[in-house]
Amino acid sequence: MNGRGKSVCELVRRSLLWIIHRNRQARALSAQQVCEAVSIDILASSLDVKKLVDVEEILIHCSSLIRLSAGGDSLESAHFTVEEYLRAIDPVRKPHLTQFRLCDELANGWKAAICLTALTFDHIVLDIVRDFGSTMRWFR
């Protein structure tokens, strides 16, 4: 797989984790918050604004899996079966899809690392960490 293919796979993986894997009681992230979250590199000291992902890019690469909500302010699963499929991926039978498998423990750990990284940024200007109280509710 070439570099472009790897970066697209990583974008899709990160997007699915933030959009589909979430606590049922938590509010959905805004489309802007998802864009920011998928753009953060773990252990970075700041967000590289040149790497900030656009919502259209997420929609293009995740086209059959996610969609804009009816209000157009957030991203959501295109169908309830998307989450069921991602949770049921068998790493032995489908090793090429293992990176997209939803696993609560791994997803929560990864999201916590992203939030902690964002909180240590030199300048916090992101929507995703501005509302700190609701950010922390994602992990309950």
SSE layout and pairing:
Blueprint (H helix, E strand, L loop, with lengths): L2 H17 L11 H9 L15 H7 L4 E3 L6 E3 L2 H8 L16 H16 L7 H4 L1 H6 L3
Antiparallel strand pairs: 1-2
Helix pairs in contact: 1-2
Strand fraction band?
Answer: under 5%
Q: Helices and strands: which structural class?
A: mainly alpha
Helix content: 40-55%
Outline type: globular
Low-confidence segments: 132-140
Cross-sheet strand order for the largest sheet: 1-2
Question: What number is the mean pLDDT?
Answer: 83
Number of domains: 1
Termini Cα gap: 37 Å
Q: How many β-strand runs?
A: 2
- Compute the CA-based radius of gyration: 15 Å
Q: How would you spell out the order of helices and strands?
A: HHHEEHHHH
Biggest β-sheet: count, sense, barrel? 2 strands, antiparallel
SS field, number of helical segments:
7
Describe it.
By secondary structure, the chain is mainly α. It has one domain. The chain is 48% helix and 4% strand. The chain has seven helices and two strands. Strand 1 and strand 2 form a beta hairpin. The chain is globular. The C terminus is likely disordered.
